[in-house]
Amino acid sequence: MLAADDLDKKTLVLDLDETLVHSSFKPIPNPDYILPVEVDGKLVDVYVLKRPWCDHFMESVGSRFEVVVFTASLAKYADPLLDLLDKQRLVRWRLFRESCFPYEGNYVKDLSCLGRDLSQTIIVDNSPHSYVFQPANAVPISTFIDNMDDQELLELLPVLNELEHAPDVRVVLGANLGLRDLSS
């Protein structure tokens, strides 16, 4: 459970890999970061490409939401990457693989472990398996690999603007995404 910091704001849970960035052990053209990570006792370079509009998106949501990055990645990779990605320290909390729940061969991000009101909690993730326990809180996003014309983070901002003022985000998301209301 997270400490109560920004209880006057909605909680925005963001996935890392294939949502905000794409990472590869193989060199990629024009990486934003090259991150040395220890794997099996030796350092290997991880090549990281930020999704277009990532910085703008983070600046926009950082002051309006309690931002949490919840990733199924290991902390030894994700924590130093977030140090680079979040230079303004807009992310209030970082949760890694050990906070995920193994379920049917996937790592599930159980939002109830945050200790936040689920009516005030949103998750943005490219993998529906990640939010299978709380699908009514989810804003799906396409998987990002290397499309530098991608606009999804920019297009997500009006959705988050609407959710910021909603009494219950699950009602809005259920109506907009055709999900049944799973909050009851």
TrEMBL record:
Pfam families: NIF
Residue ranges occupied by any FCP1 homology domain in the UniProt entry: 5-163
Gene Ontology molecular function: phosphatase activity
Name under which the protein is recorded: FCP1 homology domain-containing protein
